[in-house]
Amino acid sequence: MSRSDAGEPQETSPSQPALESTSPLEWVIAAIGGLLVVAAIAYMVVFAIAEPERPPAVTLSVTSVTTTPGGYLVSFRVANAGGATAAALQVSGELREGGAVVETSAVTIDYLPQQSEREGGLVFTRDPEDLTLSLRVEGYSEP
Amino acid sequence: MSTAIASPRAFKADAAFLRGLGRAFAGALIFALPMLMTMEMWQLGFYMDPLRLALLLALTVPTLVGLSRFGGLRPTARLRDDVADALVVLLVAALAAAVTLYIFGILTPGMSAREIIGKIVLQTVPGSFGAMLARSQLGGEPEGEREKDPPTYWGELFLMGAGALFLSFNMAPTEEMVLIAYKMSAWQSAALALVSLGLMHAFVYTLNFRGGSARPDHIPAWSLFARFTLVGYAIVLGVSLFSLWVFGRTDGDSLKEILSASIVLGFPGAIGAASARLLL
After folding, report:
1. What pLDDT is attached to residue B61?
2. How confident is the model at residue B69, as a pLDDT?
3. pLDDT (0 to 100) of residue A14
4. Which residues of chain B have pLDDT under 50?
C-alpha cells in the first residue's frame, strides 16, 4: 500500500495549492487510527480462533435482599463464563416452607453476552429471610 | 517534512486539519446517531460473529480510501494521503462512538472487553462513512473548485456501491428487513425489484438532480440502462446480501427468504446508489 504511489511526483509543488499533502500532525493521528484498526481486527480474529465454540455457561448469585414498598426484592447477578451469548435468559426463584413451594417469581434477562454479567431482581410478597430461597436459570434462546 | 513544522504555512495547514477533524466528528455523529440509538446495533456488537466483524472493519478501510478519492476531508494528491484520511476518520468515528455509547450507558463496568470492543467497532463503520462524507456534505469550500475528474465507469460503479451501503447500513441490522421479507409474497418481491430498478434509472437520468448525470445524446437509453442501472442494481443486491450476511440475518434461512430480504434491503440500497452522486 505504501509503495503504490512510488511512481508519482514526490512532493506537491506550491503551484498546486488545491492539493494538500499530509501534515506530520495528520500522520500521527492517522498512525493512531491505523494502529487501532489493526488492533481491533487482530483482537476479533484472535478471539474467534482462541475461543472454541462453547455454549453459554451461566452462574447466578444473589447479591442482596431488600424490603421495598412493592415487596421483598431479591437482587441477583448472572454471569456468563461461556463462549456464546444467551438471549431471553429465564431466571426464576422459589420460596419454600418445609419442602412445599409457597411462592414463585420469574424474570427474563434480554441478553447475557459471553464473559459478561448482568443484574436483575425478583420480587416476593413474603420475607425470604423466614423461608428457603432458591434461584435458578431455566433456559435461554440463541440470539 | 521536519522543516515544514515550523513554517507558518504548516500551522495554517494544521488549523485547517483540526477544523476538518471537528467536521469529521460532526459527520460521524450525524450519520451514526440513528445506529448509535438502535438496540439491534448494541446487541450485534457482542453477539455477531467476530470474524465477520473483523472482515467488515477490514473492508471499511479500502472503501474509505475510495470515498476519499471522490470526496473526503480535503482535496488529495496521492493515494497515501487518502489512506491517511481514511485512518484519521476511523479514529474520529471510534472516538465519537465510544463517547456517545458511554454517555448513553451502553458501555458499563461488568461488560467484557469483547462486548465493549465489539460495540465500538460496529458503530465505527457507519460513523467513519459519515466522517468521510462530512467533507463533501458539510464542507465550506465551494464544490466547483475541487471537483475532480469525473469518475470513470468503474469509479461510477464504486460510488453506486458506496451509496447503497450508505443507506442500507442503517436498516440492515434491524429485525424489520427480515420481517418485511416474510410478509411479502414472491410476486411482491418481484414487483419491489422492478420498482427499485425503475426508481434507480429515473433518479439518475430522468429527474436531473444536481450531480445526476445528464444523458449524453449519442448513447442510447437501453445502453445506459444495461451498463449503469442494471449493473448498479446487481451491485446493490450484492451489497444488501453482504450486509445481511455480516449481521447474521441470513443464517439458517432458505434461499427464497435470503433473496427476498436482499430485495427488501436493496430498495433503500437502490435509492442510495442512484443518489450516490448527490450524497457522496
Report:
1. 95
2. 79
3. 41
4. 1-5, 72-73, 140-147
Q: Which amino acid is at A143?
A: P
Plot region of A126 (φ>0 → left; ψ -120 to 50 → alpha; else → beta): beta
Residues of B in contact with A4 (CB under 8 A): 79
Burial class (CB within 10 angstroms; exposed 0-12, middle 13-18, buried 19+) of A48: middle
Question: For position B125, what pLDDT does the model report?
Answer: 94
| pLDDT recorded at residue A6 | 41
Q: Would you state the pLDDT for residue B75?
A: 58
- Which residues 53-72 of B are in CB contact (within 8 Å) with A? 53-54, 57-58, 61
> What pLDDT is recorded for position A126?
92
Paired sense of beta strands A117-124 and A71-80, if any? antiparallel
Closest CA to B64 of B165, B200, B210: B165
Amino acid A20: pLDDT? 60
**What is the C-alpha separation between B50 and B57, in angstroms, rounded?**
11
Q: What are phi and psi of A115, to 5 degrees?
A: 60, 25
In-domain check, residue B256 = yes
Last residue of one domain, picked from the residues B148, B174, B209? B148
Are B112 and B16 contained in the same domain? yes
B112 → closest Cβ in A45, A87, A113: A113
Residue where a domain stops, chosen among B127, B148, B169: B148
* B63 assigned to some structural domain: yes
Nearest C-alpha in B relative to A14: B9
For residues B141 and B249, membership in a common domain is answered with no
> How many structural domains is chain B composed of?
2
**How many residues in total does chain A contain?**
143
A19 touches chain B (CB under 8 A): yes
CA-nearest of B250, B60, B4 to A23 is B4
Domain interval for residue B100: 9-148
Q: Which of A21, A45, A85 sits opposite B81 (nearest CB)?
A: A21
**pLDDT attached to residue B10:** 65
pLDDT greater than 80 at residue A26: yes
| Dihedral class, residue B253 (left if φ above 0, else alpha if ψ from -120 to 50, else beta) | beta
Chain centre distance of CA B197: 20
Q: pLDDT at position B29, please?
A: 93
* A52: confidence class by pLDDT, cuts 50, 70, 90: confident
